[in-house]
Amino acid sequence: MTRSLMKRRLARAAVTACCAAGLAITQAVPAHAKTVQVRFDYAHLWQTPEFKTTAKGSITFKVLTCNRTGQKMTVLLRRTSGINHDIGTRTIKCSAKQTASFRNVAAGTYEFELGKLDDGRHFQGLASYTFTG
């Protein structure tokens, strides 16, 4: 084997090793969960601010406090990037620790819409939502 052929093979091996190491590093960085707290106060419908997810995963809405404990409420997840698209709706009680989870949600921009019967009563409380940020 000639010296120039050895140099070329060593150069290729070095480039391959560097590329493999760079790929391994980028794949090893896990996506992290982000949690946002919001206060809600509504008589019929209320929307959270939009939020952006960075990877496919779960999005969960959790009631922390509510002034109408035990009353039913709907939690709708809507994708707002591109054409608005409703991902799904869950019915939960407006009580601490009640959650609405949506799994295998693609990366994008979303919002929650909370709803209840329009009976003149206000739902007030604190909630959080968690997503891949």
Tell me what the structure shows.
By secondary structure, this protein is an alpha+beta fold. Helix content is 20%, strand content 50%. The protein is built from one helix and nine strands, in the order αβββββββββ. It has one helix spanning 3-28, and strands spanning 33-42, 45-47, 51-52, 57-66, 72-79, 85-93, 99-105, 109-115, 123-132. Strands 2, 3, 5, 6 and 8 form a five-stranded antiparallel β-sheet that branches. A four-stranded antiparallel β-sheet has the order 1-9-4-7, with no helix packed on it. Strand 5 (72-79) and strand 6 form a beta hairpin. It is elongated. The termini are far apart. 17% of the residues are buried.
User: Per the principal axes of the C-alpha atoms, what is the gross shape?
Assistant: elongated
- Percent helix, as a range, is 10-25%
SS element count, helices: 1
Oligomer: single chain
Strand proportion, as a percent range, falls in: over 45%
Note the gap between the termini: 53 Å
Radius of gyration: 24 Å
Order of helices and strands: HEEEEEEEEE
Helix/sheet category: alpha+beta
What is the mean pLDDT? 85
Strand element count: 9
Low-confidence runs (pLDDT<50, min 5 residues)? 17-29
Q: Give the biggest beta sheet.
A: 5 strands, antiparallel
Topology:
Layout: H1 3-28, E1 33-42, E2 45-47, E3 51-52, E4 57-66, E5 72-79, E6 85-93, E7 99-105, E8 109-115, E9 123-132
Antiparallel strand pairs: 1-9, 2-8, 3-8, 4-7, 4-9, 5-6, 5-8
